[in-house]
């Protein structure tokens, strides 16, 4: 396996660096079983999934989320 330095990566154009990150992410996502999560995080995720399954209409639509992000209304005072 060849190695590449951080300096080499930083010399790449931004679009190529973004593509590199995408490739790395895809390679990680391809083997989710390789990621270990703590028991407390698993319990939290299970609880959130159960809440969603019990009431899938609760929360915000994707359009509402995008709107809040664009107008900054997601920020708390």
- Number of helices, where a helix is a run of at least 4 consecutive DSSP H or I residues: 4
Average residue pLDDT: 91
Helix content: 55-70%
| Structural shape | flat
Instruction: List unreliable stretches of 5+ residues.
Output: none
Radius of gyration: 19 Å
| Biggest beta-sheet profile | none
Instruction: Write the element-wise H/E pattern from the N-terminal end onward.
Output: HHHH
Strand content: under 5%
The total count of strands amounts to 0
Estimated structural class: mainly alpha
Distance between the termini: 50 Å
Description of the structure:
This protein is mainly alpha-helical. Helix content is 62%, strand content 0%. The protein has helices at residues 6-11, 14-29, 39-54, 62-71.
Question: What's the gist of this structure?
Answer:
This protein is mainly alpha-helical and 77 residues long.
Defining traits:
62% helix; 77 residues; 4 helices; mainly alpha
Topology at a glance:
Blueprint lengths: L5 H6 L2 H16 L9 H16 L7 H10 L6
């Amino acid at each position: 396996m060849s190695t590449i330095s951080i300096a080499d990566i930083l010399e790449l154009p931004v679009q190529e660096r973004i593509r590199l990150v995408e490739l790395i992410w895809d390679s990680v996502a391809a083997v989710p079983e390789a990621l270990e999560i703590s028991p407390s995080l698993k319990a939290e995720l299970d609880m959130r999934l159960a809440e969603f399954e019990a009431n899938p209409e609760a929360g915000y639509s994707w359009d509402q989320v995008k709107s809040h992000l664009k107008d900054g209304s997601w920020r708390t005072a």
